[in-house]
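User: quick one, fold this
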Amino acid sequence: MGERYGCSCILEIGDDRIMVDCGPGTTYKMARMGMSPTQVNSVFLTHHHSDHIVDFPCFALLRFDLDPGDLPPLRVFGPPPTVEFVDRLFGKDGAFLPDIVARREHHISHHGHVGRGGTLPRPGMKVDVSDISSGAVVDGEGWKATAVQVPHVEPYLTELAYRIDTNNGSVLFLCDGADCPDLRPLARGVDTFVTGLSMRNFKENEEDASHPIRGVSADISEVVDIANEAGISRVVVIHCGSPHSEEVVGRLRRGYHGNGYSGCIVCPDELTTVEI
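Assistant:
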């Protein structure tokens, strides 16, 4: 859509970087921003639609290849089947196992590895992967992530929203899912709300209220309600940005029946940095 392509966010907390989803082109876009996969030690997957996970093999393999030997295991969290997904890529029968073995064992790979400052023997693929569910809490260096299940395309895929609390602020990621009662307590007091958005308005228009996307992805009225009820000062809209940014902002401001959102609204293009 316009200048937008794929879905991935990276949250920088001191020297640590957390990735939320790894959609098409993520690794390439990191390179354009001067970021290396070796700088990311934790990945949170919201759900297993391909536009949120398809670049994960590229990202993880490059991190492995650039590992001089002292990187910690890449921690990967997500709803089932995250463990199965990663195992099918990098496990003992994984699709990329021949590549991993070749890079660990062949002398030309040793040459390149040592030339980049690595030591022998080359480390293997270091991934610590977990299936998590609603209510799970993950701790990191200076941050804490809390997961809650939200509606999306059940029973085929499970989606999690994540609240990440840091010493400098908090961020709620609702990447594709819809509103639900369990999400509201998680949103309370959050500083920044990162969300996908359907351009429908379920509480304003009868036609929108009967649309099949209701209950699948958040609409204008749901985003307004979540942000206003929780006292969120900034909404960052992904999955529906350029070239519709002005329309998105206008619809969120108008809201429904005179109930709109008056806080900061950001509709970022690719490679955009937002301070928390």
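User: anything notable?
Assistant: Residues 56-66 form the longest helix (11 residues).
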